[in-house]
Design brief:
- It is an enzyme of class 3 (hydrolase).
- Pfam families: ADI.
- Belongs to the arginine deiminase family.
- The chain is α/β, with parallel strands linked by helices.
- 32% of the residues lie in helices and 23% in strands.
- The protein contains 13 helices and 20 strands.
- The strands form six sheets. Strands 8, 9, 10, 13, 14 and 15 form a six-stranded mixed sheet that branches. Strands 2-1-20 form a three-stranded mixed sheet. Strands 5-6-7 form a three-stranded mixed sheet, with helices on both faces.
- Strand 8 and strand 9 form a beta hairpin.
- Helix 2 crosses helix 5.
- The N and C termini lie close together (7 Å).
- Bound molecules: arginine.
């Protein structure tokens, strides 16, 4: 693990204001966040990273700049107009509406969606059947409140980026945005895409870089075994790793991604949810002669990881919590830390016990508040997409 040099975040905005008690479950939030406070919390998170010399890029800004390119604008507009729910008549109206927007406003609509009332029929703009029959609470273009969790919609493995294939309908459209950014933004010109939306499901929260040539991929609610297999094949073909540990995790919301139970905090240490630490197993996958992934026998994760990483032991920060505290702090993303260098990580301040154990183990914890941000069930790691780390 090197020092974090550049990270992509998304400052939450109008898309969070779309959440209501009617739609928060399907939009994958457990509460209705207070938007202004969530933004303050997020600004403090970004500032904590900048204070440590990390360059912070914002997805919203990159998207706006990307939309200045006609080809990107056309591709992104087409991706929302493709929705078969619209029908020809409404599609025409939405198309005309989007065509009038400048890049900043178009970026806003792509992120925050378009509500029924924002597309009022007027003179020369009849409602049409689909619009008239739509519930007024429905969205013409669905909002993307989970954009905040930039970890999941793309993941870098060294100099290549996997644009993922998100499993939940509420998040599916996010990758049209990340893909367009990587394809069209001058900052990323020439970047190879290691994975693509539309392939078998893989989410960035399930991808952990354990060492320069070793990856772990969680398989559970979001990443499928088929997705892990294809990603492994591509990683091997690109020469980006020699071993991939495929780690089955419980298919439930509390453990939706591998990074909800385990994150790296040092070159040879992880913080891990104690209630599963001993039970976690891994299938070591290596490249066969034909480049096809070869699957070894399942073993305890910690042993398989140490062997692949070429170290004696992968230390686990013994959070030593009683099972109830451990369960509470896991739910609030206590294990979801963002390493900004070996032995320095960002964590939510509310996970008092986990953070104290990290400090006792010699890990510096930069604590941020996340009472509003955390209502979407994601911590500092989920809210960040590291683009570059410098060795050492
Ligand atoms: N890498 C992560 N753990 N991301 C958390 C994503 C949370 C988001 N609400 C979802 O359900 O998808």
């Amino acid at each position: 693990m090197g020092r974090l040099a550049t990270v992509m975040l998304h400052r939450p905005g109008a898309e969070l204001a779309r959440l209501t008690p009617r739609n928060n479950d399907s939009l994958l939030f457990d509460a209705i966040p207070w938007v202004g406070r969530a933004q303050e919390e997020h600004d403090a998170f970004a500032q904590a990273l900048r204070d440590r010399g990390v360059e912070v890029l914002y997805l919203g800004e990159l998207l706006k700049e990307t939309l200045e390119k006609p080809a990107a604008r056309a591709a992104l507009t087409e991706s929302v107009l493709e929705d078969p729910r619209l029908g020809d008549n409404l599609r025409g109206r939405v198309s005309a509406h989007l065509a009038d927007l400048d890049p900043r406003d178009l970026a806003q609509v792509l992120m925050a969606g378009l509500a029924h009332e924002e597309l009022k029929p007027g003179p020369g703009k009849p409602g049409g059947l689909v619009y008239e029959l739509m519930d007024r609470h429905d969205f013409v273009i669905d909002p993307l409140p989970n954009l905040l969790f930039t970890r999941d919609s793309s993941a870098w493995v060294r100099n290549q980026v996997a644009v993922t294939s998100l499993a939940m309908p509420a998040r599916n459209r996010e990758t049209t945005l990340t893909k367009a950014i990587y394809k069209h933004h001058p900052r990323f010109a020439g970047t190879e895409l290691l994975y693509n939306p539309g392939l078998e499901n893989v989410e960035g929260g399930d991808i952990l870089l354990l060492a320069p040539n070793v990856l772990a991929i969680g398989v559970g609610e979001r990443t499928t075994a088929a997705g892990a297999e294809r990603l492994a094949r591509r990683v091997f073909a690109a020469g980006l790793a020699h071993t991939i540990l495929v780690v089955p995790i419980a298919q439930e919301r509390a453990t939706m991604h591998l990074d909800t139970v385990c994150t790296m905090v040092d070159v040879d240490a992880v913080v891990m949810y104690p209630n599963i630490a001993d039970a976690l197993r891994a299938y070591p996958v290596t490249a066969g002669f034909d480049g096809e992934p070869q699957v070894g026998a399942a073993r305890p994760f910690l042993d398989a990881a140490a062997e692949a990483m070429g170290i004696d032991r992968l230390r686990i920060i013994d959070t030593g919590l009683d099972p109830v505290t451990a369960e509470r702090e896991q739910w609030d993303d206590g294990n979801n830390t963002l390493a900004i260098a070996p032995r320095v990580c960002v964590a939510y301040e509310r996970n008092v016990e986990t953070n104290a154990q990290l400090e006792r183990a010699g890990i510096e914890v930069i604590a941020i508040s996340g009472s509003e941000l955390g209502s979407g069930r994601g911590g500092p790691r989920c809210m960040s997409c590291p683009i570059e780390r410098t060795p050492g």
